[in-house]
């Protein structure tokens, strides 16, 4: 399977790239990135690294470079507190993601024999109801929920061309966090980053029965 990977210089996205290289089911990965990747990664023949500065637009020239991609693992985003303000968090998390999904649906999906598969790295407790009064991690949960709903709306309108899965890790730990930390993570709904990356790739390749995959279920993939 040929896939698109975003967020490749981030904690999760960089691990998705490494696992894609190791995964025999992934035949090629188009890596969209704003920043250069480490040379030992970027030179890998299994990757096509494309520097893309504006994730709100997908010009025809870029989409032609992505021709043949059958799915995408999207890891751009994060907690709202990681951004300068909520407006920036919403732009990066919502606007960028939905712009890509629409572009891939219109330009890449029609050339495939099956629907394009989009796997979105969301978060635990994502909330679709934008008017809900939340006391914990309000902005992050509402933004993640807005992205999920937007993606599923696109999928609903393009059932023969576009499929979406949203994974909701409760928290993500480094793969070499140590035995005690790893055991604690598993009992509290957290997941090791390499496990998360492998799970998202498996979902891209094989699909999954549930469109929203909660933290405990992720641990079983």
TrEMBL record:
PANTHER family: EPIMERASE, PUTATIVE (AFU_ORTHOLOGUE AFUA_8G07320)-RELATED, OXIDOREDUCTASE HTATIP2. Pfam families: NAD_binding_10. It comes from the Eukaryota. Coiled coil: none annotated. Residues 7-204 form the NAD(P)-binding domain. InterPro entries: NAD(P)-bd_dom (IPR016040), NAD(P)-bd_dom_sf (IPR036291). This is NAD(P)-binding domain-containing protein.
């Amino acid at each position: 399977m040929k896939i698109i990977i975003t967020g490749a210089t981030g904690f999760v996205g960089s691990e998705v790239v490494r696992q894609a290289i190791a995964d025999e089911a992934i035949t090629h990965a188009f890596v969209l990135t704003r920043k250069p990747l480490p040379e030992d990664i970027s030179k890998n023949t299994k990757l096509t690294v494309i520097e893309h500065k504006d994730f709100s637009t997908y010009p025809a020239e870029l989409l032609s470079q992505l021709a043949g991609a059958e799915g995408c693992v999207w890891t751009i985003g994060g907690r709202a507190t990681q951004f300068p303000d909520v407006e920036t968090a919403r732009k990066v998390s919502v606007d960028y993601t939905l712009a890509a999904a629409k572009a891939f649906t219109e330009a890449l999906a029609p050339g495939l024999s099956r629907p394009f598969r989009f796997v979105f790295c969301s978060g635990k407790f994502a909330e679709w109801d934008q008017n809900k009064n939340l006391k914990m991690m309000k902005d992050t949960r509402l933004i993640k929920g807005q992205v999920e709903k937007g993606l599923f709306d696109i999928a609903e309108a393009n059932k023969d061309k576009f499929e979406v899965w949203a994974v909701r890790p409760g928290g993500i730990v480094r793969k070499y966090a140590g035995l005690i930390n790893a055991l604690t993570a598993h009992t509290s709904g957290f997941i090791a980053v390499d496990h998360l990356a492998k799970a998202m790739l498996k979902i891209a390749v094989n699909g999954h029965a549930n469109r929203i995959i909660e933290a405990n279920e992720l641990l079983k993939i």
